[in-house]
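FAQ

Q: What does a record look like?
A: Structure on top, sequence underneath. For example:
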């Protein structure tokens, strides 16, 4: 078995949103605790205590808000340019969300590994040691007697384990639906609270939809909207209410199952991707031949005239046009494969070839003018095409590359 070691930077990046593809795992030792059933009188007393705590908390919050309002009034009287409500919002505008992630402390890593080692040495059935016990003093003394290099060596593995625990806790997949449901409900409630506060501070309009993607999940469609005007906007644009929108979204993901990505690649969507891929590929190949601003299909001869670049091996006979105008998937795949394999390519002319091209181009223009003079005055001129005499001929000599497909 190969043991892969990750650096601290890699593990920290793992916590910042990099794709994490592991299931959640336990990293703590949890001892079973005996539960004592409460009597009816004890339950009643517990409810009364909770109600009293809630009332005290509400009173404390009201007192704190009144204090903040007092500061806001003082600022309004001092600066005299805004009402107290403005300064109240200014004071309360800082978000509670953490802006950065702290790095793992070497001391915490050493403490963790020492507690784990000493607990593993205890016999079965003995209560495990905790950080709050007097044992921490002995560990601290040992830590103080170590040099910085010794500390690095002693904690290198444990620091990586702690970073992995952070990443697993933040991004690890739940394997039990009930735990996933609890996590989702708690997190969404916290997000809703943050969004309400953000809306109050900044007047931003916010719309949030969360749905399950598998039938094994217990989560029902969840929606959050900050105003009735936003509800009206969603109704006018999607022709359905927000709850209906969430139900349709849930049905889409559950109906696709685990094959959402493949099912979403409908024929039209796949065709658009092929067009984009072909256009980007051709532009990249062209820019390798010089500072050419963009590809020109109707007037490709201007690229040859200005930059001395010709196109060879265009695979689609009689269809020299932008990839966006192609509606056939096989044609687009042939075009992409030709450019990737090198069968189709841009080539820079030598000075002699470029001079020869200019001469032949001038002869074609003169021939076109002669043909136009010989036509009837009432005749209507036809638009230029790749087969037009003005366009570079595809039947030139082998030494002179063609600028249009043959």
């Amino acid at each position: 078995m190969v043991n892969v070691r990750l650096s601290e930077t890699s593990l920290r990046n793992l916590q910042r949103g990099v794709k994490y593809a592991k299931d959640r795992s336990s990293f703590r030792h949890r001892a079973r605790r005996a539960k004592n059933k409460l009597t009816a009188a004890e339950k009643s007393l517990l409810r009364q205590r909770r109600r009293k705590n809630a009332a005290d908390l509400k009173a404390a919050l009201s007192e704190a808000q009144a204090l903040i309002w007092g500061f806001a009034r003082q600022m309004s009287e001092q600066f005299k340019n805004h009402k107290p409500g403005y300064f109240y919002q200014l004071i309360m505008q800082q978000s509670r969300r953490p802006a950065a992630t702290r790095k793992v402390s070497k001391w915490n890593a050493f403490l963790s590994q020492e507690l784990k080692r000493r607990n593993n040495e205890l016999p079965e059935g003995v209560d495990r040691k905790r950080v709050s016990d007097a044992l921490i003093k002995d560990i601290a003394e040992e830590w103080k007697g170590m040099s910085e290099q010794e500390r690095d060596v002693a904690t290198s593995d444990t620091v990586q384990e702690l970073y992995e625990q952070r990443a697993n806790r933040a991004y690890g997949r739940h394997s039990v639906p009930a735990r996933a449901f609890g996590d989702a409900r708690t997190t969404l409630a916290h997000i809703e609270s943050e969004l309400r506060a953000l809306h109050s501070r900044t007047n931003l309009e916010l719309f949030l939809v969360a749905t399950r993607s598998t039938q094994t999940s217990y989560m029902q469609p969840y929606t959050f909207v900050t105003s009735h005007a936003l509800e009206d906007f969603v109704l006018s644009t999607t022709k359905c209410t927000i709850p209906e929108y969430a139900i349709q979204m849930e049905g889409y993901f559950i109906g696709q199952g685990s094959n959402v990505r493949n099912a979403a690649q409908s024929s039209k969507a796949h065709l658009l991707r092929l067009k984009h891929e072909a256009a980007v590929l051709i532009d990249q190949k062209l820019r390798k031949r010089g500072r050419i601003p963009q590809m020109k299909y109707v007037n490709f001869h201007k690229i040859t005239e200005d930059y001395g670049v010709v196109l060879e091996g265009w695979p689609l006979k009689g269809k020299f046009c932008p990839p966006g105008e192609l509606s056939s998937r096989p044609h687009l795949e042939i075009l992409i494969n030709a450019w990737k394999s090198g069968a189709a390519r841009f080539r820079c002319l030598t000075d002699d070839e470029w001079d020869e091209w200019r001469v032949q181009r001038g002869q074609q223009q003169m021939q076109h003018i002669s043909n136009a003079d010989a036509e009837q005055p009432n005749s209507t001129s036809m638009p230029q095409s790749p087969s037009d005499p003005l366009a570079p001929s595809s039947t030139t000599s082998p030494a002179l590359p063609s600028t249009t497909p043959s």
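Q: Is there anything notable about this one?
A: Residues 210 and 222 are 5 Å apart (CA to CA).
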